[in-house]
Design brief:
By secondary structure, the protein is mostly beta strands. It has strands at residues 10-20, 26-39, 42-55, 58-73, 78-89, 94-110, 114-129, 132-148, 153-164, 167-182, 187-198, 208-219. The protein has a twelve-stranded antiparallel beta barrel.
């Protein structure tokens, strides 16, 4: 019997650099890596991102984040999931935010050129801020959409909402919008808008963080 080929990882890395000189002297470097593997009834995704920036010699951006999500398909569209997220953001005074989220997901649309899924489940959130430590249970509500605009371009959007179950005034919302266009078979131009809203941030910090990132991505 002929053996089936082993499923391969779909991997990409992206990097961007922004420099300004004159009335302002700034530098911003961003990088991220994503890997996706699908086999049988399994889906596994892992990713990491970092950003570092300075304004007139003063650090104004310094963050690192990572996530791992495993999906086990029960049918063509329904699946169970386990997801872990970690974040360090020194400017927002977040030394460590760890989120552990089991749950259930469903593909409302699952096609070759577009997908739309919704996810729900409990989450354990651990925060270590400059002002102290905190942990609580939250409800995770997630939504993901991706679509091929053409053979050489695609877009995606995701939304995560994490309200604390016993204090709905404490919640975190994460939104991402992205578009990517191929330059060659391996390289592409990628632009991403990220918005993180923390309704109860560390003392002295703003609730909303918005970042627009553009860069070159490489698939391997």
């Amino acid at each position: 019997m002929e053996e089936k080929p082993k499923p391969k990882w779909e991997r990409s890395v992206a990097a961007g650099l922004t420099l300004t000189k004159g009335n302002s002297d700034t530098v911003l470097f961003t990088a991220n890596a994503v890997g996706l593997r699908k086999w049988d009834q399994n889906e596994l995704e892992a990713g990491a991102a970092l950003a570092h920036g300075k304004n007139s010699g003063t650090v104004n951006t310094e963050s690192f984040s990572g996530h791992v999500q495993y999906n086990r398909l029960f049918s063509e569209k329904a699946y169970g999931l386990f997801r872990t997220d970690a974040l360090h953001d020194s400017i927002a005074d977040v030394e460590l935010r760890l989120t552990i989220s089991p749950g259930f997901g469903y593909y409302l649309i699952k096609e070759e050129k577009r997908n739309l899924s919704f996810e729900v489940g409990p989450s354990f959130v651990y925060d270590r801020l400059g002002s102290g430590e905190n942990s609580y249970m939250a409800l995770r509500l997630g939504e993901k959409y991706d679509m091929a605009i053409s053979e050489r371009a695609r877009l995606w959007q995701s939304l995560d909402l994490l309200p604390q179950v016993d204090d709905l005034n404490n919640f975190i919302a994460k939104l991402e919008l992205g578009v990517e266009a191929d330059l060659t078979k391996k390289m592409s131009l990628r632009v991403t808008l990220q918005d993180v809203y923390d309704n109860e941030p560390a003392p002295g910090r703003q609730e909303n963080d918005i970042r627009l990132v553009s860069g070159i991505a490489y698939k391997f």
